[in-house]
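re: ur question from earlier - yeah i can do the single chain one, its not a big deal. heres the input i used so u can compare w yours
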Amino acid sequence: MNIFTSLKSHPYVTSTIAAVLAVVGIAGGVLAWGPSRPTFTIEEPADYITFNSITNNPAYGDEQNFFRVKPADADNSAYSDTVALEPGKEYQGYVYYHNNAAANLGLVATDTTMRIELPAVVDGSATTNAFINSPDAQPVEVFDDATLTSSSALAIRMVPGSATIHSRGAVNGQTLDDSLITDGVNLGYSKLDGDIPGCSEYAGYVTFRFVADQPNFTVEKQVSKHGENTWSESYTAQPGETVDFLLKYKNTGTTLQKDVVVKDTLPTGMSYVAGSSTLGNPTNPQGVKTSDEVITTTGLNIGSYNPGQNAWIIFSAKVDGKDAFECGTNTLTNKQTVETDNGSKSDTADVIIKKKCDEKPEKIEVCDLTTNKVITIKKDEFDEKKHSTDLSKCQKTPENVKVCDTTNNSIVTIDRSTYENNKDRYTDDLSKCDTTPTPEQPTTPSELPKTGASDTFMSLLGLGGLTYAAVMYVTSRRSI
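and the output i got, formated as tokens:
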């Protein structure tokens, strides 16, 4: 027989209940209850209204420790002040209440309420608290807590409709409002009016359940050539090409995720193809056409998903023309974001555009028929009316030039092209090849000639001869 059956079946507390609670083995010296208050015994109860202050209740033990927790699927001996939580598992809380006023005093606590505080998240360790309140009691409110631990972050939520009151009175088995974990709810005996008479006959307890959720989900973004469904993280496309994007979501946590919203942000250089979105999920596994809201700022609400369920969206986008891109490699990153009540996550896929701008056009040599010269032009500039690929039509006697060959100091005549291509050897400055012989300079004798009387005579004789010749020439001219 467990504690719950005892309270429902027996008009008075029995030793069986005490035996069950003794299994828990909680040491009062380490428990977090309060506030500090006078305590009583079952033999000497209080002479005023006070809650949960008897230290030797044979059915419960020390009433100050009135809040305990266990795994929901465990037996009652598992109730404890500390419980290790596991993702996705359900737990049950137990809160005992007892107006300790002696029965013969007829003292009734009015407006008696109970309230539970559950932590939103347990990441390592957190406490959950239970409060019992009556304006007639001293103290007005008493409290006790239990410790919840976890090895990873877990979200705590109450199981709706799980709070139940257990009593010997008419309220036994009634469901309490879920406001138990917010504003609190009325307790009672004959009805849930807040009235709790003194004595253990009117005591009771409340149970409720909560879940340790671990919300989680994954998102993935991929791209493919249009219509091929060859999905990858990136795809190299041509300017003007249409591509397909795949957006994937999966609930990998332990809790329902409601109103999942998917948003997609297209990069500059791409435009959405209107009406191309298809949504797939457990309701529509093959996919169904959906609105274009996925690319709006508000996004597309794809509904609610239980743990393990998934959804996908496929839509098309067109790459802009080549004039929209710079030379080289252009990376267009498409970003998907999934928003849930448990946060948001994003992923991306890339479209690669390679634009070549440094290619040199093919060139050809032609005869320019208008100038009779061989020239080089771009192949796409060829005009058969002005050009000929027959270079012989531009052949003519090469132009010759006279230049100085600096290698041998000689003046030579060569064609101009040879001169233009060998200016390190030839120059048109002919003075650099001046071949006029340099006149010989007289050699100065090392010793001047000696002179004497005979030399002087001979010089005079020579001078006289010249004078005579001149006179004779003049005389002959007169006689003519």
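Residues 3-213 form one domain. not sure if urs matches, ping me
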